[in-house]
Queue: 2 jobs
Job 1
Amino acid sequence: MAEGRAHRRLAAILAADVVGYSRLMETDEAGTLARLKTLRQNIIDPSIASHSGRIVKLMGDGALVEFASVVEAVTSAVEIQNKMREHNADAGDNAIWLRIGINVGDIIVEGDDIYGDGVNIAARLEALAEPGGVFISRTAADQVRDKVPINIEDRGDFAVKNIARPIQVFCVVVDDRLAKAAQRGEAAPSKPPRTPSIAVLPFVNISGDAEQEYFADGISEDIITDLSKVAGLLVIARNSSFTYKGKSIDIRTVGRELGVTSVLEGSIRRAGNRVRITAQLIDATAGTHLWADRYDRDLTDIFVVQDEVTRQIVEALKVTLTPAESARIARTPTRNIEAHDLFLRGWEALFGPEKTKESFEREVALFTQAIELDPDYAEPYVGLAHAYNHDFQNHWSGRTDSQQLSGTTAGWRSRRTPPCPMRTL
């Protein structure tokens, strides 16, 4: 074999991650890590080993596993999810759920690691899966059908990141009652309902002022962040939903491409200190309205409006809020509207198309002004961290990591360190 030639083989790849890992860690870091360790020792690792799987790598909230047989991979996944469901029955707020994606494909092997589209597709399937669910590719479904006593649902084609063609997604109905019923020749039990899921599209700026675009995007992102605090609701990340910005597209297409049950869209008109927000929640399958409302408020009430929109969505989707979730949604990040406006301007610049020294300096100036107005407002600190990370990567300022920190935080060290918010990127 020629030197440097890639070593390839066919394998079944299982990708798994913990649902809401950031939220769990924010709530109870030590307890979450301890529970994950126990679940690995008692459920996950033994199942993988018993089905001849190899854990390729662990990634904090996830794992990549290789199997020689897709039958073994799917059997292990179903076994893990069934045992996780039994474990979570008495776990209450401490429940930990997994998403699992499985694909069969050609992989590139380098040492103990694996790469290639075979791996990437498994990761994309995992991201689409529901909490406690197993999503598999068409190739995997064809090979396990009639070999494993499970029910497989065709969820349609999905366009996913970095994969040239849409992939056909199949959902394994994870319920050990199915296996027992199949063995007895009985009809399968009724299927559990799908977990509510939502994509928040960028709100349309109808202010007649293109410079207000940052404000409309900021409101959309804040609603995404608030909805992400609800454990019983799957929320598509900003980077995925914002790909539809400026496009006229059928909501049913959005639902199919992102794999969600509902979509929120709306518009914002800002004039002086007044703002009008319209929002409508749409069933992504039928294209019908589930809820719609309009809010005419002062800018000082903007967080109240976001709170109301979030609660109306949760109520329309029949998701029950825990007291802790309700309190997190109601938390006001700042009472200084000018500081919030500066943060939104800085955030737009941070993730805008321009990546230059000038844009970096503008971001730092905006976030710094916001902090000066409200030192306890956490999100501008997050913005500064991202800005300095970009500077470190691009060497715009020519300063070292330690110089940046000492120059930026010198005036803040005596102040109370604010809690770190969960900003969805």
Note: The two ends are 44 Å apart (CA to CA).
Job 2
Amino acid sequence: MTRPLTQLEMLVELEPIAEQNLNRHLSMAKDWHPHDYIPWDHGRNFAALGGIDWDPEQSTLSEVAKAAMVTNLLTEDNLPSYHREIAENFSSDGAWGTWVGRWTAEENRHGIVLRDYLVVTRGVDPVALEQARMTHMTHGFSAMNIARDKVGPLTDIADVGLLHSLAYVTFQELATRVSHRNTGRSCNDPLADRMLARIAADENLHMIFYRNLCAAALDLAPDQTLAAITLMLKNFQMPGVGMPNWRRNAVLMAKHGIYDLRQHLDEVVLPVLRAWKIFERNDFTAHGDHLRNDLGAYLDNLRTDTIRFEEQRDRSLARAAARRSSAGTLAPSSDRG
């Protein structure tokens, strides 16, 4: 059996691919400015400056849109955690270091524009938003720690950090793109829709960088990389996990099509695995084939869970519609004629 590559060896071997994809990204990324997406003429002072503090009646967002916008913003707010994780697993030198800095700067714009929009338009309670930001950022996030909590010490993969990070951010960036795009559509505001489409375009370019690097890692060390991919997917959690009201907001978003199991499977997991040709490759050893079978079994279970979720959601939505219809039928008539 071939000796697993160390993280340092991986970084050195993948450096030329990182440089190629960094240059590709810089050639395709569009500069944009958060202030261009904010309706500043909607802004006014809060009570501390002689104005009026936030009131729920001031928001034009639905409960679903509020939940999605807050979840997306708090996810972006936790950027220092993500920066630490990729900085520790990549390198501060050469193309790797340049990418880490560029990616961090681009991601920071997302949090800036989302917060400015929500505060200026009074879409959500700014006090509750700030309290949630403090809580979430203090708690932090680590995809590696989640994996360790699930499976214990990661002793079966040499220097798993780089490969696990590459796999995680590939799927996470694509999942975030889907969530942002659907959140924009839910806001019933053309400006919010354009803003979130702009953010989603960034996330897609980030995904492509990571997907290409992970593809190169698969070519370099097929079994080792597949082990990291399988471990990550079986224990995947969105980066917002653990934020205040996470479960309530995630359920609301899934129930109303912002991000659900079907989207996770059909728009995120399967397209990436197809791009990597996971089930077509012939360069795995017997151990790699075992991992691939394990991954296939996981996907079968995910398909079953997806169908079950959709059936439960359909029943729940039908019951809610029936209750609304019944309430409308039973409401007293205003016709006095």
Note: The chain is about 70% helix and 0% strand.
